[in-house]
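@channel sequence for tomorrow's demo:
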Amino acid sequence: MIELIYISDTPNTLDQSTIFEILNSSHAKNKLNDLTGHLYYDGNSFLQIIEGEENAVRSLYEKIKIDPRHTNVETLYENEINERAFEGWEMAFKELERSTVQNSMVMFNKLKQNSKRHIPNFGAGLFGLFKDSIS
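structure tokens (generated this afternoon):
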């Protein structure tokens, strides 16, 4: 299994009904493909953690990269995992303040510059960083 974390911009701010459609579609497809994860949205960008078997994660990610609702798609982290951080969550979702996502990008950029090492359950750690912002 792998976890993959990416960020992307949205060309236009998405309204609640569009977000709801994305989530409904994601729940069904992710359940079918045994994918779990968490989606964050701040009105301008998505940050998503996807967990599952490598082929299923990569297949979904390739679709995301060509989806017109996503631009500037960037992989932030990818690695093997032994267990899921989001077991049973076909697609958890939370809207975040823009500053929370921007602050997380500072952390990711430092990580990318300083290390390519494996960080076990990095997605779970990222979720922990956002807990205060989403409770």
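heads up for whoever presents: Residues 16-32 form the longest helix (17 residues).
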